[in-house]
Amino acid sequence: SYIRERNSIKLPDDCQAHYLSIKHSFPQCMIESWLSEYGTENTIKMCEYFNRPANLHLRFDPDKISFEGFAEHLMKRNVKFSRSKFFPYIVKLMSNFRFLDDPLFQKGYYYIQDESTTLPVMLLAPKEKDKVLDLCAAPGGKTLLISAIMHNKGKIIANDIDKRRMRLLRENVQRIKCSNIEFSERDATTFSVDSKFDKILLDVPCSGWGAMQKKPEIRFQNRNRLKSLIPLQKRILDNASKLVRNDGIIVYSTCTLNPDENEKQIENFLELHNEFYLEKPDNFVEKSLITNSYVKSYPFKHNIDGTFSALLRKR
After folding, report:
1. Which of 254, 273, 285 is nearest to 314 (CA)?
2. What share of the chain is helix, strand, coil (3-state, %, to 5)?
3. Distance of alpha carbon 260 from alpha carbon 237, whole angstroms
4. Which residues form the catalytic set?
5. Any binding-site annotation on 140?
6. Rounded mean pLDDT of the chain?
7. Does residue 160 have a known ligand-binding role?
8. What integer pLDDT is reported at residue 14 of this predicted model?
9. Over 80: is that where the pLDDT of 148 sits?
10. Model pLDDT, residue 90
11. CATH number for domain 57-112, candidates 3.40.50.11270, 3.30.70.1170, 3.40.50.300, 3.40.50.2000
12. Ligand-binding site membership of 138 (annotated)
């Protein structure tokens, strides 16, 4: 068996990328890309991060419970936790917790949400009077956070063509008692309405290469999927450009570290749409998350999932 024979198993020594690929169970082409982009030390840290079991994160609603009240609630149940460095209303659990049986969960006081997913919403910075479109909303974590930041005021349209995932969003909206969210189940590439939006969130379908801790199978997905994903992202972004008002904003986000889906997608968009410009994110997130005017989280640097966000303002 592996347990008895593991010390006698020899890893390849022909090249570093092959060695790391076999040792950490990632495609060699992915390792080669990381080595080129981030170097050996950060590549190893990234592999180790993605291969660790994921911690559960809880986002509590400060309109319903304070941090002190939520912390006391968890401590009474012997739950170990730490507060997020990047978002004040998220805690990371260090021990098991049967949250489905918890009365506060059932009453909608908190939601299961990874801290990396809050970054595009922080960049969106929704206000109480805003009209917001979440164009690729399901299963709804970012939609619900937008609603919480808006204190359940203003107007949010949550759109997604995936009916099964939209059912999850509807259930959570009902549990949390959000009254400022309307639902739509249309194609994001052709979605249209008569009036313009103040702010649009585009959390587009992506390869997910920044979220492999929670979805380890993604590392082995068919690379041909990218051939359809990248044009789809472009069509969604192009359509969103027609839906936002002048001086309004679009936040484009992914949970991948692939530059073809991130920086290159934005660069190509700005070349074709001179009515938009890339706005600096300095006022919305801490400096360590900013790379060349983009918001980027790295597992090896921030110890959270890899994500990308860009703030686009219409002139």
Report:
1. 273
2. 40, 20, 40
3. 14
4. 255
5. yes
6. 96
7. yes
8. 83
9. yes
10. 98
11. 3.30.70.1170
12. yes
